[in-house]
Amino acid sequence: MSTTLKPARPVTRQLRLPRRTRASVEPSDPRFAAWRARQVNRCAMQLDADPTEPMGHCPLAVELSKQFTIDQWFNSRTSWEESGTFSYTAATSRLWRECLEVLQSVIGPAAAHGVLYWSTGPFNNPDYELFVEDFWTVMGQWPQSPNALTRRGHLAEEPAGATSIAHVSGFLLNMVDMTVKMMSPCPADDNWPTGHWTVDYRRFTGASSLESALTTLIDHHSKPELGPNDPIHLRSDIRIDPIDSPDVLNLRNNVTEVGVSCRGFDADRLARVLTPGDMTLTGLPPVTTGDGELTALTATLKSMYRQGLFEENPALVG
Q: Are 227 and 218 in contact (CB under 8 A)?
């Protein structure tokens, strides 16, 4: 029996990317694609984020400079100042192109929707245009840019004082200190003052070790679906509304609410499964109404996981 999540009263906005945009930014690895889709869904509820915006949820960002943190209003609770750049030389340009080829191989065509900046503007690196040219050569299109039009033969001047920053659900590379992080947006708090989770990170020394780092991060952290022994744990920002219908369980946080359709079982049973926070699919309580109820309940829990309703915050799940 198929189960769906349906919006309850009121929903701020529907999470639906345009068909062509959704396909073009989806990573090739189905595990990584499933992880990224969950984070996009989660952010729509946690941040009231619109994934149809041009800079929404890039699968890749590359820093061409290195910064240190300072406390300011810019970029959630933390900002950066520049402390080094990745200069364009014969050696670094070769390394850069090799790394781009690895990114394209591991992420797929979605890598072409990346950005070549992070906590400072693109033109903070004086060689930015040279790196952009190589990006176009390897990826077949220009990288996204927050306040500049990037097209062949022309880079528009970035407005002074620009403070835009892309949301990334995927990988952040720093070419200065040779690190790659797996990350996703989140509400800024004491654990994540920059407004992004760092799920994990690796160091690399060249294209080969970058490929190993990326595949290791995907292998370790990109679960395609809710496993039989994974804890069924609602996100910490979600609460269960009082039940007023056996057919729908309403969940809400401080941004919006969703309704979980309870076809084949009742909302009270689902609430009792969700409340402890440590139940698993293999440990679901037995039912007396036949296997159909258990099948429907299991399908709904898996659907909720795909919708990003279960806890994956690295600071909370370890």
A: no
Q: Write the pLDDT tens digit of every residue in 216-254.
A: 999 999 999 999 999 999 999 999 999 999 999 999 999
**How far is the C-alpha of 44 from the C-alpha of 39, rounded, in Å?**
9
The pTM of this model reads 0.82
231, 242 contact by CB (below 8 A): no
Encode burial over 271-309: b for 16+ CB neighbours within 10 A, e otherwise: bebbeeeebebeeeeeeeeeeebbebbbbbbebbbbbbb
Answer whether 73's CB lies under 8 Å from 180's CB: no
- Pairing assessment for the beta strands 5-7 and 257-261 based on DSSP bridges: antiparallel
Residues ≥6 apart with Cβ < 8 Å to 116: 61, 62, 64, 122, 128, 131, 132, 135, 143, 145
User: 16-62: per-residue pLDDT in tens?
Assistant: 333 434 456 889 999 999 999 999 999 989 987 665 554 467 899 99
